[in-house]
Fold these 2 entries.
Entry 1:
Amino acid sequence: METRVRFAPSPTGALHIGGGHTALFNWLWARRTGGKFVLRIEDTDRERSTQEYEDTIMSGMKWLGLDWDEGPDCEGPCGPYRQSARLDLYRENAEKLLADGRAYRDGGAVIFKVLPDVELSFDDVVYGRIETKSDGLRERASGELKDIVLLKSDGMPTYNYAVVIDDHFMKITHVIRGEDHISNTPKQLLVYKAFGWEPPLFAHLPMILGKDKKKLSKRHGATSVYEFRDMGYMPDSVFNFLANLGWSAGEDKEIFNRGEAVEMFELSRVTRKPAVFDLDKLNFINQEHLKRMDPSARLDLVKPFWREAGLPVEKHGDAYLADALTLMGGRGQTAKELASFADYYVSFEPVKDRWKAENISEEMRPGLKEFFTELLAEPNWTAEALEARARAWVEKKGVKMKDYAMTLRFALTGMKVSPGIFEVSTLLGRDEVRLRLEFYGLL
Ligand code: GLU
């Protein structure tokens, strides 16, 4: 039987980390098994659902690389894929339950009659056996059975009812969703039973906690998938990071791409232990992906942040800029950070803002001038030749290379830390190096 899974967001907010996580695990399982991934929009809350949220959820999924096979934008054999367009289906099926005496009307609403002692246990793929009986649905205070509303008086279905109708008619084989829905599952099983339908398998995903071990929320900072994009994280890294929440491909397999994840994924190896959302981990993963990236793709990612900082990106050729980023040798955890670490390749302005030559004393100047004049006299403008010439000079003078190289670093980058300064000099070019040194009166 073909695997069919679904992601069923309510378009009442952006795509959050939790939603992205659920979507991703469904996608992984569909792709792993060669099955189908269905996107269903649960928009029965007419007040809070908007087209705008639906659009951002979809574009957020696309950003993460989670494509779907059936959904409101592409339809498919089990459509429509928006609950608001399926109201007839909910009504017709509620009428069957009314006719069978399994439900009754109260006001305009249709209510499911909950009988006592109905066995509602199920084997969750992740959480294992979950034992429940319909008595558990009894209202605690009154001791009476709590009946379940199927259709509200305005004709709108409740979540627990619509989800069963849809999962059944959409032929869903695995319901993969957040563990906060475990408590809804018995109610849904009641409805399956009433219709005599085979329920799908349930796989609930562990809760995602902040570092303080509290449920992830706005308090923990960025929570929507797009906020991560805007902070300069790459979709591949956010994908990799989310996939590692509640599932692990094994030791030494922390970094992977989508294709590798699909090959390794096993639903039965998802853990129920709450997963901790650790930004340091995301930074580490992002840095690893940045390092592995193709130089021109890396450049595409960094450019917008340079532009945002007002740097004249268009003044330079792509090959030069891409080489500059490669020379950074894996520094920078995000594209944004890399852009700021490497701004001096794009313009001298940020260097001037950072370094005012305050640590250069008048006594040091003559020696520095002599050193830089010597360096600029090198006919062969390569890192090796520059370094050899610099070494020969400091040896002859009996001074320390460190002191001279440090000043060169400050004058060229405005920073205390940078890639090898002779490499940086080579890439910047003789004219630019001269210009920067002259500005500081070091030539
Ligand atoms: N619309 C529900 C939600 O966003 C779907 C839950 C489910 O997957 O059954 O939580």
Entry 2:
Amino acid sequence: MNTSVLSTDLPQEMKHAVDEAVRLLAAGDVVALPTETVYGLAADALNAEAVAKIFAAKERPSFDPLIVHLPHKKDLDTVADVPEGIVPVIKKLTERFWPGPLTIVLPKKPCVPDIVTSGLPTVAVRASQNLVFNRVARTLDKPLAAPSANRFGSISPTSAAAVKMELDGRIPLILDGGACHHGLESTIIKVEPAAPKPLITILRPGPITPEDLKVFGRVQLASKSKDKPEVPGQLPSHYAPRTPLRIIERPSDFIPEHGKTYALLSYRGEESDGYLGLHEWKAMHILSPGKGKLPEAAVRFFYALRQLDQAGADEIIAEPVAERGLGIAIMDRLKRAASKA
Ligand code: AMP
Ligand code: MG
């Protein structure tokens, strides 16, 4: 299969690209689309055969459920049943964060095929903010299942070029919408009724932080027991480069092995942080030069990981970032990239 990449920069390019994507999706095919988080591989969420093509292209195991993206936030009722006890809080959350990088797990409607939810009685739903994605979803006027457009377990793509690297020859079309605004996958939550406030459990940390959510309820992070993952797809090893990656908590913990080459994933690239001068790094990427800003680090994270993976070093050494705000989501991805389990 030949994989075409269509630009959306000029108005006439955008129109042609959207028309092509809609034509393929309506015919039950898959198309890679930009979202504000990472690039997604989309298919009509209500067409089981189309969704099966996502799993095949990504080599994704069938136990890992997909997120359903709505054309408009008002379409929530078409795929999910909001339990009575949480109607007010879901209304507030969707008013505040949709369209945007917040995914909510809710009981599913029968029209959502089992392949989308891996047989679970619940469906994960969000509405994307990306202009190109929205034009496609709204023209097609159907919910789209769209996991990240990479091979299963590999680094999420934040550009059309990265999608091409991952899925070339496996999908018919990629729409190029430029770099992704956030660069990390959506925050996934489940919401339960509780007194005096609803309980919001973060199943996957992302761009919407615990701080952002705490006005709407009591917020907790899902426990990360290895044996009993709270979320089926939240496997310990994910987002992984082919090159082994190790997080070094303190510079003094790094003892290079003779003859081995190393690449550095640096947070701020500051000499005074103690990592730069530790070694003659074969390659280095700085996530947010200077003061270190977490949103900038998030945007560059997967790109930097992809570049370092191609540097041909024996190991990637990563500096940790502070585990607060967006740093929680970055460290989540970094730990999964480092995990061999
Ligand atoms: P992505 O691969 O970024 O599309 O994210 C999909 C992830 O959403 C899966 O790997 C699961 O972790 C999570 N997810 C999807 N559906 C459900 C669900 N019904 N219940 C809990 N988590 C879900
Ligand atoms: Mg993914």
